[in-house]
Amino acid sequence: MNERWQERWAGAAVLLGAACFGVAAPGCAIGELAGAMAESSRRQGSTTVEAEYSGLTGKSFAVVVMADRVIQADHAAVVARLTRDIADRLAKFAGGSAFVPGEDVLRYTFNYPRWSTMPPSELARALGVERLVVVELTEYRLNDPGNQYLWQGVAAGSVSVYEAESVVPDEQAYHKALQVKFPDRGGYGPADLPRAAVNTELSRRFIDRASWLFYRHDEKNIIEY
Predict the structure, then answer these.
(1) 28 and 83 together in one domain
(2) Are residues 64 and 34 in the same domain?
(3) 54 is a domain residue
(4) Which of 208, 186, 204 is nearest to 196 (CA)?
(5) Is residue 162 exposed (0-12), middle (13-18) or buried (19+ Cβ within 10 Å)?
(6) Range of the domain at 24
(7) Is 164:179 a contact under the CB 8 Å cutoff?
(8) Those residues with Cβ within 8 angstroms of residue 83's Cβ, 6 or more apart along the chain or in another chain
(9) Which residues are registered as beta bridge partners of 177?
(10) Which residues pair with 135 in a beta bridge?
């Protein structure tokens, strides 16, 4: 149900509730039902959220993902997945004029190990783009340290944008810290959810949150992450 209908249900519930104040009548049951339906609609509905940074529109861009060696050793595929999936999502929805595919970025970073020490403006020139989106993954784990029996996944980090044609191309034009978790409730272990499923959902949530910053999208009104 869209936002207009949600508002109408909510308005009807308020009017009926006011009419029934202090009165026991069949109409009051209708008011309670309408209120419950409005709340159900709100919980099941979604809201359109505007982009926080719209500067990719009409610009060429590349996405690079940074993570320390511990994260990469424990989760060898996560940097590659974030690089590919975030770039593909932004290419589809953020309105850029061109982008460097994630596979090409990964190839460049593999061939030039010193890329992580390069100033953002130099890296942007090397990749041939006007916007450099830098995703830094500072935490990525599936368990609390020392407890391999229960899943407590956390992915945390930040997203920054550098504008190559700016007068200050090495300063962040945009920055946002992010954190997502999975599962939403405790008590789940390997017997309940396989490791691959936890890893896939945790990374998907981080990809969502990192990508949504750049384009208008719909989010569920009640969302766990």
Answers:
(1) no
(2) no
(3) no
(4) 204
(5) buried
(6) 3-44
(7) no
(8) 63, 64, 65, 102, 105, 106
(9) 158
(10) 65, 159
Q: What is the pLDDT of residues 28-42, one digit of tens each?
A: 566 565 566 655 656
Query: What's the pTM?
Result: 0.81
Least confident of 30-44, 117-131, 190-204: 30-44
Q: Report the number of distinct structural domains present in the chain.
A: 2
Is pLDDT above 50 for 166? yes
DSSP string, 100-115: --HHHHHHHHHH-GGG
Specify the residue for token string 């981080």. Answer: 206
Closest CA to 33 of 22, 17, 44: 17
Place of tokens 């029996």: 149
Instruction: Look at residues 131, 86, 136 and name the one whose alpha carbon lies nearest to residue 116.
Output: 136
Burial letters for 97-120: b for 16+ Cβ neighbours within 10 Å, e otherwise? Answer: eebbebeebbebbeeeeebeeeeb
User: Left (φ > 0), alpha (ψ -120 to 50) or beta: where does 58 sit?
Assistant: left
C-alpha span between 210 and 171 (Å, rounded): 19
